[in-house]
């Protein structure tokens, strides 16, 4: 089954601030949480229309995360928790953009990493490990990993330009079957770097530091 990979940028600390924060949110965070709740409700309605039952609703999963737990024993609860967390990310970050649609993204980016590694690109700039990194490790409770997705990945904004530069330096020597996708990725990383660099210098309240990836069917 094909997977859609989208991404946006956010401040990781802003996302983490909602997890386990029940009763301690600021007025602004409460406002954001209402937007998250609405998205969670719409997501659940879409699952209901498709006849998909994860055993835990997305709104309930969101309530669990805000309460500081993810301990449902429902068979597919991990998917509900991951979707709820993605809504928290989206409501704290930039508008989502699409990286692409891949029939087997893990296989494709694994092979791309091998090619880039062969050409001398540093291991910490290879993308597969970041696409499938999972949510922030700083989450103060165990968050189960959904076997069938959706998945969350992260890439530091500070590495966007170094990665784009490293990829561009080897683009002409890369196996031709990867060039189009890598060129698209380079352009997206360069754009995100330019936006991040400008905002960091010109906007005093700007604190975004992470590219968050969402991989879903």
List the helices and strands and how they pair.
Elements: E1 3-10, H1 12-16, H2 27-50, H3 58-67, H4 77-92, E2 97-102, H5 105-118, H6 128-131, E3 151-156, H7 160-170, H8 176-202, E4 210-216
Antiparallel strand pairs: 1-2, 1-4, 3-4
Describe this structure in words.
The protein is of the alpha+beta class and 217 residues long. It is built from eight helices and four strands, in the order E-H-H-H-H-E-H-H-E-H-H-E.
**Amino-to-carboxy terminus distance:** 7 Å
General shape: globular
What is the mean predicted local confidence, pLDDT? 96
Strand count, sense and barrel status of the largest sheet are: 4 strands, antiparallel
Question: What labels describe this entry?
Answer:
217 residues; alpha+beta; 4-stranded antiparallel sheet; 8 helices
Brief characterization of the structure:
By secondary structure, the chain is an alpha+beta fold. It has helices at residues 12-16, 27-50, 58-67, 77-92, 105-118, 128-131, 160-170, 176-202; strands at residues 3-10, 97-102, 151-156, 210-216.
């Amino acid at each position: 089954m094909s997977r859609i990979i989208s991404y946006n940028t956010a401040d990781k600390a802003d996302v983490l601030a909602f997890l386990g924060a029940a009763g301690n949110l600021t007025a602004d965070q409460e406002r954001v949480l209402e937007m998250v709740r609405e998205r969670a409700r719409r997501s659940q309605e879409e699952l209901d229309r498709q006849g998909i039952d994860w055993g835990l609703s997305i709104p309930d999963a969101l309530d669990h995360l805000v309460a500081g737990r993810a301990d449902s024993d429902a068979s597919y609860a991990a998917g509900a928790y991951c979707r709820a967390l993605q809504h928290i990310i989206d409501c704290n970050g930039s508008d989502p953009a699409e990286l692409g649609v891949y029939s087997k993204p893990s296989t494709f980016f694994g092979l791309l990493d091998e090619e880039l590694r062969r050409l001398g690109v540093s291991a910490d700039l290879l993308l597969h490990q970041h696409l499938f990194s999972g949510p922030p490790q700083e989450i103060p409770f165990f968050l189960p990993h959904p076997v069938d997705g959706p998945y969350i990945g992260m890439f530091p904004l500070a590495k966007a330009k170094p990665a784009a530069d490293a990829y561009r330096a080897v683009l002409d020597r890369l196996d031709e079957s990867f060039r189009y996708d890598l060129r698209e990725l380079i352009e997206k990383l360069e754009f995100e770097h330019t936006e991040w660099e400008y905002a960091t210098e010109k906007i005093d309240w700007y604190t975004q530091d992470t590219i968050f990836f969402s991989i879903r069917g």
